């Protein structure tokens, strides 16, 4: 079980090796221009996927976008949105909080616009922690506590998929992969995950530095080659199951347009995000 000190050292080492800025300014300012987009949501006739990339990946879907892309090949009329958040190693705690706020806002906005929509949440690494924090609430040590996802949205969420989530806990019903250790930011309270257990799958392999608190450097990057098809098929099977019982979500749906397919950023609640950034900056500067 890694101590908080070991965890801090790990993150500090990662920060130094990447030579990253430790200020939050540049990462927050880039999110401040898209507030108007809420009214432009058009409801997918297929599945809507909300994707959170891993630490240090360029803005957009990141590597786990391959899973989202493959799902859209299988489910016609599906759309994909990227969570617009810093995804930095430095100021990791603040970054996760901003990701949680942004993903929560995207879910709320989308379901408000499209009440019968079916949604999948995907995340790699830090993005996996974001997705699980959104669903379960944030309970990990050192992180700002956040509430679990509103029950009002539960029936819309048909799949939650993570690769290499640092908040991974062993022996959960949703665990996939070969890991038998908790992650470096192990979740303190999984109670609120339980109602979602049939729709969560988290892949974590033995030795992964983050989700398994392991020491095998390459493992964290192997999920895409090893599990993309498993994850894709599982999401499609959940979609199939959801459409079989309740009928395809149509209603207010408009045909997906080029502007809401892969990579387009959805609005978040930036005032809230800014507050969280201030709260999290204290941790960031420690690193
Ligand atoms: C830090 O950010 C500043 C301003 O964006 C940039 O000019 C500088 O190159 C960055 N430094 C590193 C190490 O990334
Ligand atoms: C997980 O389950 C295995 C098998 O029951 C058990 O040996 C192990 O101690 C458990 N690990 C934790 C962290 O609870
Ligand atoms: C864990 O979370 C549940 C649901 O959010 C809550 O009712 C419970 O009090 C929490 N347990 C602890 C030990 O904080
Ligand atoms: C890596 O982890 C394994 C299992 O936890 C341990 O047996 C091994 O000694 C570790 N190796 C190093 C170099 O720390
Ligand atoms: C994942 O794939 C790599 C090769 O890319 C392989 O070495 C490794 O054993 C695989 N891991 C699992 C758990 O199957
Ligand atoms: C999902 O349903 C489609 C259409 O019935 C079917 O072709 C496909 O094999 C199903 N996929 C999975 C993974 O269940
Ligand atoms: C719907 O359910 C029926 C009966 O359970 C099954 O035969 C069929 O394959 C399902 N269709 C899809 C698209 O999953
Ligand atoms: C099974 C399948 O369709 N896999 C595809 C997933 O997406 C990648 C990247 O677009 C393709 O290379 C795979 O063939």
From TrEMBL:
Residues 1-19 form the signal peptide. One of its GO terms (molecular function) is carboxylic ester hydrolase activity. Keywords: Disulfide bond, Hydrolase, Signal. The keyword Hydrolase applies. InterPro entries: AB_hydrolase_fold (IPR029058), Cutinase/axe (IPR000675). It comes from Coniochaeta ligniaria NRRL 30616. The keyword Disulfide bond applies. This is Cutinase-domain-containing protein. Gene3D superfamilies: alpha/beta hydrolase (3.40.50.1820). PANTHER family: CUTINASE 4, CUTINASE RV1984C-RELATED-RELATED.
């Amino acid at each position: 079980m890694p101590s908080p000190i070991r965890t801090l050292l790990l993150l500090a080492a990662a920060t130094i090796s990447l030579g990253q800025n430790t200020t939050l300014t540049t990462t927050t300012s880039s999110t401040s221009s898209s507030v108007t987009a809420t009214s432009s949501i058009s409801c997918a006739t297929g599945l809507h996927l909300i994707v959170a990339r891993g630490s240090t990946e360029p803005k957009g879907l990141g590597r786990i976008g391959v899973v989202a892309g493959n799902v859209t090949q299988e489910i016609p009329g599906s759309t994909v949105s990227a969570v617009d958040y810093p995804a930095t190693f430095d100021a990791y705690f603040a970054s996760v909080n901003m990701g949680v706020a942004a993903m929560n806002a995207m879910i709320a906005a989308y379901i408000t616009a499209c009440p019968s929509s079916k949604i999948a949440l995907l995340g790699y690494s830090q993005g996996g922690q974001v997705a699980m924090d959104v669903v379960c609430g944030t309970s990990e040590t050192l992180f700002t506590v956040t509430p679990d996802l509103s029950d009002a949205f539960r029936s819309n969420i048909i799949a939650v998929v993570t690769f290499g989530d640092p908040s991974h806990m062993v022996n959960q019903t949703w665990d996939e992969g070969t890991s038998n250790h908790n992650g470096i930011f192990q979740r303190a309270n999984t109670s609120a995950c339980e109602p979602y257990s049939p729709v969560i799958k988290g892949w974590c392999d033995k030795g992964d530095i983050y989700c398994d608190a392991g020491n095998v450097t390459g493992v964290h990057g192997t999920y895409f080659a090893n599990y993309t098809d498993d994850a894709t098929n599982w999401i499609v099977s959940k979609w199939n199951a959801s459409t079989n019982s309740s009928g395809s979500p149509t209603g207010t749906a408009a045909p997906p347009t080029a502007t809401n397919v892969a990579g387009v950023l959805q609005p978040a609640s930036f005032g809230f995000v800014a507050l969280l950034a201030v709260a999290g900056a204290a941790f960031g500067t420690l690193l």
